[in-house]
């Protein structure tokens, strides 16, 4: 992990390479967190180009996750998902 300048530290949207430069986890660990549902699409990252596209990570959400304070983000995501399901059915 390298020291980052101020502009790089405040960048909100990161690709996987940029993310691994900021946190003490390798790419494989991040992929495992996603597979296990620890990092959630729509909360911690998005894939604007679809399932095979590049992931864009939200630094503010990742930072909250690292501090163990992302439970509100996850709860809000679950609530919105449930509301969407009710609209569809």
Structure, explained:
By secondary structure, the protein is mainly alpha-helical. The protein has a single domain (12-88), classed as Multidrug-efflux Transporter Regulator, Chain: A, Domain 2. Helices cover 53% and strands 8% of the residues. The chain contains five helices and three strands, in the order αβααββαα. It has helices spanning 6-10, 16-22, 27-35, 59-66, 71-88; strands spanning 13-14, 45-46, 56-58. It has a three-stranded antiparallel beta sheet with strand order 1-3-2. It is globular, with a radius of gyration of 14 Å. The model has no long low-confidence stretch (mean pLDDT 82).
Low-confidence stretches: none
| CATH hierarchy: architecture | Orthogonal Bundle
Per the CATH scheme, the topology name is Multidrug-efflux Transporter Regulator, Chain: A, Domain 2
CATH level-1 class: Mainly Alpha
Overall 3D geometry? globular
Q: Major β-sheet, in short?
A: 3 strands, antiparallel
Percent of sequence in beta strands: 5-15%
Mean pLDDT: 82
- Topology as H/E string? HEHHEEHH
Topology at a glance:
Layout: H1 6-10, E1 13-14, H2 16-22, H3 27-35, E2 45-46, E3 56-58, H4 59-66, H5 71-88
Antiparallel strand pairs: 1-3, 2-3
List keywords for this structure.
mainly alpha; three-stranded antiparallel β-sheet; 8% strand; 5 helices; Multidrug-efflux Transporter Regulator, Chain: A, Domain 2
Short overview:
This protein is mostly helical and 89 residues long.
């Amino acid at each position: 992990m390298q020291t980052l300048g101020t502009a790089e530290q405040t960048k909100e949207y990161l690709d996987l390479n940029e993310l691994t430069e900021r946190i003490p986890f390798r790419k494989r660990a991040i992929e495992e967190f996603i597979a296990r549902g620890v990092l959630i699409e729509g909360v911690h990252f998005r894939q604007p180009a679809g399932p095979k596209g590049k992931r864009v990570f939200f630094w503010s959400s990742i930072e909250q996750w690292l501090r163990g304070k992302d439970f509100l983000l996850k709860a809000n995501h679950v609530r919105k998902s449930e509301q969407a399901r009710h609209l569809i059915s």
